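Quick question, first post here. What does this chain look like in 3D?
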Amino acid sequence: MQYMRAERQVPCACSEKAKTVFGWLDWIVEGELPLNICENRLARKDSRLDPFAKATLKKYLAIFTILVEGEISKRTLSKYALIFDGWSVNSDHFVAVFVSYSKEGRATKHLLSFAPLPDETNQSALNHKDFIIRTLEYLRIDPCGAVCLVGDNCSTNVATARLLGVPLLGYASHRLNLAAERVLKKYETELDLIAGVMRKLSTTKAAGHLRKLTPLKPIRRNVTRWRSAFDMVNRFLDIAGFARTVMRQIKDPIVMPSAAQVTRLKALRQHELSILQSVSMALQ
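> Answer (accepted):
Ran it through. C-alpha cells below.
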C-alpha cells in the first residue's frame, strides 16, 4: 500500500504502470523538460523509469490536466481575488489569469490560464474581460465571486476591472517601478553615458581587451526594468578604470563620464538605488 499526496493521506493501490506514468510526468513538468525526453536514448538509458512513448505521455497529460482543473474548481472558495498579467516574447503575447484566496490563514494561488487572447488584433479592455470570464466559466468558477482584480496600474487594466465590477489593486512592484523611473530621470545624462560605454564594451574587440584585465563583463540596461540600471551602475563603477584603459587601447573616442558625474553615480548607488533595492527585497 502507498499514499498519494493530497489534502489528507489516502491509502491506495498503485500499479507499476501508474508509477511509470507519474514518474515521467513529474520529471518532465517539474524539470520543465520537453515531452520527447521520454523517447531520448540517453534519458531512457540513465533513468530508472520504464520506456514510454511521447504520444502515450500526451494522452495521460491531457487526462491529468482534466483532473487538476476539477481540483481547482472544487478548492477555489466562493470569494477570491483575480490576478491578471501579460507577457510577450517576440511577436507573441500571452495573458495569465490566477485566482487567489485565503484558507485557514494561508494564501493560496492557482494558475487558471496562460494563453493568447482569442482575438489577438483586439487588445481592448472588453476583450480582456471576456477572456477572464470565459476562463472562469470553463473551470466552473462563479465570476461573481471575484472581489478585486490585481494587475499593473495601466489604463487597460483599470477599464477591465471596471467592466468586471471590481476594484483594481495595482502591483506594489509596478508602483515601485514607477517611483524608480522618477528617481532615475534625474540621472539620465550619466546613465546614457555609461550605457554607451557598456554597449561599446560588449563588442567583440572591446570585450576581448576587457577580458585580459578583469573577469567582470559589461552589463547593459533594460529601460523597462529599473533593476538593470542598478546593475549597470554597479558594474560600471567596478570596471570604470578598466573601461578607460580599453577605450585607449581600441582608440575609441566614446565619451566617458567626468569625475563629477562618477561622483554623482556613486551617490546614486549609495543612496537612491540602495533604498529602492531594499524596498524591492521587502516586497519579495
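The chain has three domains: 2-75, 80-170, 176-283.
The beta strands are 2-4, 10-12, 80-89, 92-103, 106-115, 146-151, 168-170.
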